[in-house]
Amino acid sequence: MIDVLYFAWVRERIGLPRERVETGAATVADLVAELRAREERYAAAFADTSALRVALDQELSGFDAPLAGVREVAFFPPMTGG
User: Does a structural domain hold residue 38?
Assistant: First the structure.
């Protein structure tokens, strides 16, 4: 089981701030594919992964990163600083 957190417009499209997901996904991209296949709201949220960032256990990562040993995956839009 992995805790999946959604922030900003990702949370708005999915309608949840977080959930526990049972997955056999090997990478973040595999997890995204599983989530997209669930329902239209997930498909809409993950339609363009170039508009998303991901953190694994609170460290920025890539969509090709392995999920082995990961407890938490967070999806959020890119942030601008200032």
Answer: yes
3-state class of 12 per DSSP?
A: helix
Assess contact for 60 and 53: CB atoms under 8 A.
yes
Residue 49 belongs to domain with CATH number = 3.10.20.30
Residues in the chain: 82
pLDDT digits (tens, 9 = 90+) for 41-82: 999 999 999 999 999 999 999 999 999 999 999 999 987 555
Please give the model's pTM, rounded to 2 decimal places. 0.93
Report the number of distinct structural domains present in the chain.
1
Amino acid at 50: S
Cα separation of 19 and 3, whole Å?
A: 6
